[in-house]
Design brief:
Helix content: 25-40%
Largest sheet: 5 strands, mixed, barrel
Number of strands: 11
Radius of gyration: 17 Å
Strand order of the largest sheet: 7-10-9-8-11
Structural class: alpha/beta
Strand content: 25-35%
Length: about 250
């Protein structure tokens, strides 16, 4: 296979699996590769954004960091979709709860992604685009969450361009509209998937609560994030069976 070089990824054309898990943190990418993937190989390390490919339960799966914010996940997911034959990207990351019934350590499966970002303006649409998850990924992730007996919620998330907002009431409007949580990447990922005809999903762990102020400890975050990783990995395996195994046969 030939080497493909983009401004942000330098890898063989077949370096990535059809499904890529995207945590924000490169070290979390490394953790997944070392603890879950068999025969994991580092396939990209441009700018320290570590990408690995290995197998999980016999299925070729990749994991690569996205960095923080919509501009960065927008870049990496676009290049994976457009140049490396990736069909499915699942963001796995942390989020802050916006609703009282959502508890710290719960799992959020993002059915839709509201945003305060201007990301969609590039498409020149005469209206407002609603970024949504890909149904096959979401359906399978819900199934896997139930099998793991996870406490999970499915609904709207908020993808924000600001972590430290000058407006201290910025999330109040989103809360009254029933938005479950706030994070910083899903909307751009969903829009890239829509534009390229690919699939995307955000599976998030609640690490802190915007109403109660509760936060997880480092140990609790590790355990909660592990459950989120397993939901995504098991979803990748089932997707491979449903979408690709029959074609190969």
């Amino acid at each position: 296979m030939s080497l493909i070089t983009t401004p942000h990824i330098n890898a063989e054309a077949d370096a990535f699996g059809k499904t890529v898990l995207m945590p924000g943190d490169p070290l979390r990418s490394k953790f997944i590769a070392e603890n879950y993937l068999e025969n994991a190989q580092l396939v990209n390390n441009i700018r320290g954004i570590q990408g690995y490919t290995g197998t999980y339960k016999g299925t070729k799966v990749s994991v690569m960091a996205s960095g923080m914010g919509m501009p960065t996940i927008g870049i990496y997911s676009y290049e994976l979709f457009q140049f490396f034959g990736v069909d499915n990207i699942m963001r796995i990351g942390s989020t802050g709860a916006l609703q009282e019934n959502v508890k710290v350590r719960d799992i959020i499966i993002g059915m839709g992604a509201c945003t305060n970002s201007n990301y969609a303006s590039q498409y020149g649409l005469a209206g407002t685009f609603a970024p949504i998850a890909s149904y096959p990924l979401m359906k399978e992730a819900i199934k896997q969450a139930e099998q793991l007996h996870a406490s999970y919620h499915v609904g709207n998330v908020l993808s924000s361009d600001t972590f430290y907002s000058d407006d201290k009431t910025a999330t109040a409007g989103w809360q009254k509209m029933g938005v479950l949580c706030v994070e910083m990447e899903a909307a751009a990922l969903y829009m890239n998937a829509a534009r390229t005809g690919k699939n995307a999903l955000a599976i998030l762990t609640v690490s802190d609560h915007m109403i109660t102020g509760e936060e997880t400890t480092a140990e609790e975050r590790q355990n909660s994030f592990t459950q989120m990783m397993e939901i995504a990995l098991n979803t990748a395996v089932e997707l491979d069976c449903l979408l690709y195994t029959s074609d190969a046969a």
